[in-house]
Amino acid sequence: MPSAPAPSSPAPVVSPLAAPAPAADSASSRSHGASSADRPASSPHAHRTGSTAWHAARALAERLGRAAPLTAHRLPLDRALGHVLAEAVVALTDLPSFDTSAMDGWAVAGPGPWTVKEGEGLLAGRGSTEPLPDGQASRIATGARLPADATAVIRSEHAHCDEAKRLLYAGREVVQGQDIRPRGQECRSGDELLPAGTVVTPPVLGLAAAAGYDALVAVPRPRVDVFVLGDELLTAGLPHDGLIRDALGPMLAPWLRALGAEVAEPRRLGDEAGALRQALVSSDADLILTTGGTAAGPVDHVHPVLAEIGAELLVDGVAVRPGHPMLLARLAEGGPCLVGLPGNPLAAVSGLLTLAEPLLRGIAGRPAQDRYRAPVRQEVHGHPHDTRLIPVVHREDSVVPLHYNGPAMLRGIAAADGLAVVPPGGVRSGTEVEILDLPWASASPWTEGCFT
Ligand SMILES: Nc1nc2c(c(=O)[nH]1)N[C@H]1C(S)=C(S)[C@@H](COP(=O)(O)OP(=O)(O)OC[C@H]3O[C@@H](n4cnc5c(N)ncnc54)[C@H](O)[C@@H]3O)O[C@H]1N2
Ligand code: MOO
């Protein structure tokens, strides 16, 4: 819990992985690893020693993830959902792999009327077929292999069969090749169907199976541990006697799942430095998130515990409101990273999107998000030095800022489509600002159990 005196700022943190702040609208850096050209991390807007500019903090988190990607595995299709392709999916066959009928009806060769061949006709999945001589027709089912020399398929409803004479008449003009799906129409063997970095969704599984795959080489979902700090937190019932409900435990796990992570049930550690230390050193997750305890109050244990276990602070404060006390650390050389989210709930969301989301994207090998901008419907006040993240809703071609956007409030974000990135000083009505979309509009892997 925060209290006076003000935090004695730790020494400026200049990580070997820190990079200069990219231009506000430039794409995140994709360079890997450390370089002497990559420093320092300080923002042109930062007014606190060690505070990193918002865009630089995001870029650094993503780069840190990309520098330590998770190992890819060969996964059977039924275990690959939600993972990220480490290799492109290349067609192992032509699709369709043979000329096939698109309709139930008749395969015909040459001009009609046609003599109907005897027998049950051509069914999907049946073995080899003889050529169809000119002037003949054979019953054919959707998906059946077309006999060699067939020139068209006539849908059953567009043909009339004189059973007595065993003659077939077309009810309308027959165009060569009609209702035939030619071999290779969708792809040729060797064509790239999906690039590396694609998230394995249900249709990706379907396409991979169709193209001949039994397994996919994919990066597993990063495993995340969430440690919720604070003695004041209740897990059920109404707030009472200065105690409040934990709003972050219930929110973060599904949010992280929506970002493609595998998340253990959040653990509540109270305000116990020892419990925090023990949880950090015994975690085997790829990323650890803590909530609360990032400031300098009497029971804000995150900084002291990180120092005690020899963690390297890579970002210690970001020039963003809310959420400026957020931090990013590496627990040990080659060890997992930790994102310290501030305890105020909207500040925690800010930390999640600023540091955890790009880091997860990096370690999972997901491509950089498409950035986009939209005009704001009204003037938005800015912070004098820091970026502001404001919950917004889309309205036609612009975004409308929502009320109840204070650091301790979730009412705005719960109704929002995204967060507007408001530069220091604010923006006038009509100014285009960067928008961070919330993941649930486009996909819903956050449904409990869906991606597990
Ligand atoms: N002297 C200073 N005090 C504070 C500063 C500062 O710069 N100097 N920064 C303020 C800002 S901004 C934030 S944000 C918070 C960050 O504080 P902590 O990360 O240490 O978080 P706590 O003190 O533990 O909690 C802050 C606030 O949030 C409530 N909280 C915590 N966890 C939860 C949860 N899981 N669900 C709901 N609410 C939670 C907690 O009860 C406090 O009200 O520090 C300011 N102080
Ligand atoms: O960063 Mo704090 O989030 O302003 O409340």
From TrEMBL:
Belongs to the MoeA family. Catalyzes the insertion of molybdate into adenylated molybdopterin with the concomitant release of AMP. It catalyses: adenylyl-molybdopterin + molybdate = Mo-molybdopterin + AMP + H(+). This is Molybdopterin molybdenumtransferase. Residues 11-37 have a biased composition (Low complexity). It comes from the Bacteria. Residues 1-10 have a biased composition (Pro residues). One of its GO terms (cellular component) is cytosol. It comes from Streptomyces pratensis (strain ATCC 33331 / IAF-45CD). Keywords: Magnesium, Metal-binding, Molybdenum, Molybdenum cofactor biosynthesis, Transferase. Its cofactor is Mg(2+). Residues 1-54 are annotated as: Disordered. GO terms for biological process: Mo-molybdopterin cofactor biosynthetic process. SUPFAM superfamilies: MoeA C-terminal domain-like, MoeA N-terminal region -like, Molybdenum cofactor biosynthesis proteins.
